[in-house]
Give the backbone structure.
Amino acid sequence: MIKLFRNTRKKLLVEKQFTRYLAYAIGEIILVVVGILIALQINTWNNQRIEDREEAKTYENIRRQIKDDQRALNDAKLYNEFHLKAYKYANKIIISENRQKADSLAIMAMLLSRFSDFHRSSNIYETLVNSGELRLLKNTAITQKLQQLEMTYTFVNKLEVMHWDMISNELPEVLRGVVNYNDLKAVLPDKLYDVDMQNMFVSIIYLSETKDEVYRKALSEIEELIGLINAEVPYEDD
């Protein structure tokens, strides 16, 4: 093709058809430019397809991780709710000073050592930033929701650390000598009804209620995120 163009130009010059030569040369330049533009456009389309595939893959990875988090959060929430009910019931026993339920109260006092502990799959937003994948996500609503979810996760973990500190540092003092750890029977029943024991129940009730609210908030944020991601990349439930 190039040889044909060269021969045609030579022929026009030999025949001194300068006007036609100029028009031909301009036409040839235009063809070359058009060819370059087409090649650039094809390259742009290819790059865009690659970016779109990477973006979809990133959304799918985020969805998988937050679904794992969703399951873990639901488990933690149910565990927290179960024990919260027991703590509230124990507090009612203390308030009513029902001594016939001292052994039941002793068991619930031992349950104060249990606490829900949520472990997320990974620090999703930070991982996206560090890997450079965040730039692939064109939906800013998703990135903003991810940031918010990370903040909620951080709050959840802080509450759980507070809960652990309370039951590891304060609870042993309150329970020492009060309950037989072997058979869970009350050794000093009166101590189960005193202000220290009640304050321990009330403090952990408040903390557990706060955790429940934050668990619900995190689950709500996950639902919103899944909805946004599903709009970008349809999800087929298997």
